[in-house]
Structure formats: C-alpha cells, structure tokens
Amino acid sequence: MKRVMFDLAALIVRIVIGVIFVAHGLQKWQGGLGAVSKMMGQSGVPLPQLAAAFTATVETVGGILLIIGLLVRPAAVALLVVLGGAFVFVHRGHGILSSSGGWELVGALGSVCLLLLVLGGGRASVDQVLTHWYRRKAEHRHAAQETAGASAGAAPAAPTRAAPAEPTRAAPAPPAESQPAPPTQPMPRSTPAEDTTAPRQHLPDDGSHRPGNLSDQDMSDLDALFNDEHRKPPNR
Question: Which residue would you say has higher pLDDT here, 23 or 205?
Fold first, then answer.
C-alpha cells in the first residue's frame, strides 16, 4: 500500500513540477532569448546569451521529461543546475518571498527536483516501464544462454587420446638363500633277469654236484646197475 501511495504521489509531483518548468521555458521562448539574456547580463550571469538559451531549453525539455517520467533523474540534475544559477545570480539577497524577488519559488522547485533525483519518478513512469522491459529481456537472454550451455554440456565430448603408459619394470626378486643340496643316493643297479631259454651247461660230474642229495653208496649202486644192463646181450 505504501508503495502504491508513493507511486501516486510521485506521479502528481512530476506532472505539477513539469508543467511549471514547461510554462517558464515557453515564456522565455515567447518573450525572446534577447530579452532574457539582457536581464541575465544585468544580474551578472556570465555568458548571458548562452545561459539564456540553456535555461530556456532545460526548463522546456526537462519539464516534459518529468511529466512523462522519462530520464527523470538526469532531467532533475539539469533543472537543479538552472535553479542553482538563478538562486546565486538573481534571487540571492532579495529575501524569501517571490514578490520582492526572493528565492521562494526557486527553493520549492529545487527541493522537489532533489527529491526526484534521490527517490526516482515511481513506477508510473516511462523509466519504470523501460527498466522492466530491459530486465525481462536480460532474463530471457540469460535463460537462453543457460539452455545453450546445458545442451552443449550434454553433447558427447570428443574422445581424447590417452597418453601411452610407461612400461613398468618388475622389481628384481631378492636372491634366494643358498641351501645345501640334498645328498644324491646312487641308483640301484638293475640285475639282468635270468634267461630261462638259454641252454643249461652241464657241469662235470666231479662229485661236488649230486642230484637229489644222493649219498656215495647210492651213487655206486646206480653205477653198478647201469653197467649190468649194458653187459647183457640184446634179445634176439
């Protein structure tokens, strides 16, 4: 509610002050800049012709800008310069009331311009409309940049070649502790198998080898028996 009241009050003040400045500026243009510059020269204003043209232009254009609410702060600065020069060179030393040439009107207009310079022209002004429009445009641009950045970040990145890895050298194994080798056992010699197919050698009969463990008496009996058989004649 306070913001709405301030905007309404700023609008009324801008229109009223703007109309006053436009009226003074048009008066100077209609009366002629020559008369204005002569009056300023008599008051001690330096460069009176240039000062008269500058004053008439600032009051007319500045008043219009205050009414529509465009460039309110720059217009307020320019009007403060004009009012300050009028106070110093024309109205100072003549009291307060404007009837005696005092600074009554200059002080009131200057105070309002200072207030507009500090607080601005309110939301009911062209400045506020342009500011809102530029702000929305900047937000849209920022959102578009964020969207473009997000889409660019989602794109697959180009494959980068990995640097070849250096071959790792295996650490040398620690030397094994020398241990005495176990004693080697001689391999047993394989005895050749007895060949049973080879013919047996008949050992001489010297009495040392006797079959069947026969005694000497048995052997003599056998010899006698064989001899008797050989002596018998063959059967005819």
Answer: 23
CB atoms within 10 A of CB 84: 12
pTM: 0.61
Q: Helix, strand, or coil here: 130?
A: helix
Tokens of 223: 């010899």
∠ CA 127-82-120, nearest 5°, is: 25
Single-letter amino acid, residue 207:
G
| Alpha-carbon distances, residue 91 vs 99, 104, 196 (angstroms) | 11, 9, 163
Residue type, 158: A
Domain ranges of the chain: 2-125
Distance of CA 22 to the CA centre of its chain: 56
Quick count: other Cβ atoms within 10 Å of Cβ 79?
Answer: 27
- Dihedral of alpha carbons 60, 62, 64, 67, sign: negative
138, two tokens: 């900047």
Is 190 a residue whose pLDDT tops 80?
no
